[in-house]
Amino acid sequence: xxxxxxxxxxxxxxxxxxxxxxxxxxxxxxxxxxxxxxxxxxxxxxxxxxxxxxxxxxxxxxxxxxxxxxxxxxxxxxxxxxxxxxxxxxxxxxxxxxxxx
Amino acid sequence: xxxxxxxxxxxxxxxxxxxxxxxxxxxxxxxxxxxxxxxxxxxxxxxxxxxxxxxxxxxxxxxxxxxxxxxxxxxxxxxxxxxxxxxxxxxxxxxxxxxxxxxxxxxxxxxxxxxxxxxxxxxxxxxxxxxxxxxxxxxxxxxxxxxxxxxxxxxxxxxxxxxxxxxxxxxxxxxxxxxxxxxxxxxxxxxxxxxxxxxxxxxxxxxxxxxxxxxxxxxxxxxxxxxxxxxxxxxxxxxxxxxxxxxxxxxxxxxxxxxxxxxxxxxxxxxxxxxxxxxxxxxxxxxxxxxxxxxxxxxxxxxxxxxxxxxxxxxxxxxxxxxxxxxxxxxxxxxxxxxxxxxxxxxxxxxxxxxxxxxxxxxxxxxxxxxxxxxxxxxxxxxxxxxxxxxxxxxxxxxxxxxxxxxxxxxxxxxxxxxxxxxxxxxxxxxxxxxxxxxxxxxxxxxxxxxxxxxxxxxxxxxxxxxxxxxxxxxxxxxxxxxxxxxxxxxxxxxxxxxxxxxxxxxxxxxxxxxxxxxxxxxxxxxxxxxxxxxxxxxxxxxxxxxxxxxxxxxxxxxxxxxx
Lengths: 101, 564
Known about the structure:
B: 24 helices
C-alpha cells in the first residue's frame, strides 16, 4: 500500500453517496416513509384484526426512519476516505483504490 | 390441498421492486466502472470490520437460516437454538481464533486449491466433483423456496414457479446482480431484520406476549414443555437417551457439522481473508458471532408462534405427531411454510412487501452464489484441469457461461428433490453430512499431520462420503430408527470417523509428500512469524480477537443456560 501513497497524482476522496451506510440508510428510509404513510392513512379494521390492534406499519415505519437517519448521520460524521491514484496507460486496472488509515 | 395465498397488493410489489432497483442498479453501475466508491466496496479490501462481519453471516442468512430454522422452531421449539449456540457461534469463534491465522499466513486460498497442493490431483478431483454436486443440490433448495414464494404470491403451479424463479436468477446473474455482492449481502441483512423483527413482535403481541407464547407452546398437547428446554433435545436428535442426545448434539451437530461447515466454507472465509491484516481477518467471524447469536430470536421464535397461532400449521403438527408425516401431508401445508403462514396472518400490506423482498433477496442471492461457485469449480477446477487444458481464458469464460445456464436448469430438478422434505433442515443437514463432514476431517488431518499422504487424501474423502450415504440409506429404510435430525448427525459423525481412521491407516502404508513441499500447507511446517500480527498488542481490547471471542463465548454460555 505504500507505493500507492507515493504514487504521483494520488488524491483522497470521500466515499460519498455509495458509502454502504448511505445505501442502507436510503433504502430503509424509503421503506420507512412508505410504511409510515401507509400506517397513517390506510390503517383499517382488517389490518387491526391481523396485528391484534397495533398499527404495525406506523411503528415499523417510525423505527425504520430512525434507523435510516442514524446510518446516514453516521456516514456524514465519520466519512470513509479512500486514496485514488490513476495508473499509467496499459496497467491491469485503470486506477488504484486504497483506504486511508 | 388448501391454497395458501399471500394477499400482496400494489404497495407490496412496489417495495419489492425497489429492492431490486437498488441492487441491480449498483450491479449495472459497477460494471461501467465509473464510481470509485462502488469499486472500493466491491473490491472487498480493507472494509470496515462491521461490514465484513455482517457480510460474513449474511452469506448464509438465506434458505438455511430463515426458512429452515423457523420450520425447525415450529417442529421442535427451543432445541433448535443449538444450531446457533452450539453450532454456528462456537464454530465462528474457533475459525477466528484458531484457523484464520493459519489461512491468512499460509498460501491456502480455497478448499480445492488446498486439496490440490496438499494432496495432489486425486483428492482435488474428488473434492471438486463433490463440491460441484453439493452446490447444485443446495441451489435446488434455494430455488424451491423461491418457487414456493412465487406460488404463494401468484398461485401459479409449482413447476411453473420453479421455471420462472430459475429464469429470474439467471437474469439476476447476467445483469450483474452478483457483482454487487457486498452491497447485497449487507443490505439483505438489514431488510431481513426489518421484516422479521416486526413479524416476531406482532406475533408475540397476538399470542399474549412472551408468557403467552410459553403457555400456548407448553399446552399444545403435542411437543409440550419439551419444546421450551433446549437440552437435552431428544426430539431434535432422535435419541431417546438424554445423555446420548447431548453427546450427539455436541459432537454431531456442534463439532462435525458446524465446525466443518464454517471452517471449510471458503465462500465465506474469503470475505475475511480480503482484510488488510491478520487481526482484521480474525475479527471478521468474531464480530459476526455477536449478531449471529441473536438471530434465532427472530427466526425460531416466529416458527414457534406460527405453530400455535396458525390453524393449518397446528393441525399439521397434530396429525404429524399422531399419524405420521404421510398423513399430515394431506393438510396441504408443511413446516417449511411456517414463516409464510405467519406473515400471511399477521403482517399488514406494506410490511408484507418488506418481508417478501427480504426473503426473495436472500434466496436469490443464495442461489446465485451457489451457481457461481458451481461454475467457477466446473470451468477452472474440473474443465481446465482434467478435460481441456491450455485453452485461452475466453474459452473457460464461455464454459462458465454455459455452466451457469445448465446449472439453472439442473437446479429445477434438484429443487424437486428438496420439495420432498417437509422440514428442509433435515435435508440440508443430510447434505452437509455427505459433503462437509468428510471434507472437514481430511482438511484437519491434512493441516495438522504432515505424515498424511496424497492417497490417503482421496481415499478418506470417498470413503467418508460413502459411509454417510450408507447411514442415510439405513435410516431411510428403517434399519436405523432416528426420527429428528439424528440420522444426519450420526451420518456426519460416521463420515468424520471413517475418514480419519482410513486416512491414518492408508497414510501409514503409503508414501508421504516431502516435507519441503508442505510449507504453508501444514501447521508445523509454516513459520510461526506468519501466524501472528506484531501490532495486535497495541490495539484497544475491543479490536483484539481473543478478548472479544472470550466475551462472545461467555454470552453464548449465558444464553445456553438461560434457555436450557
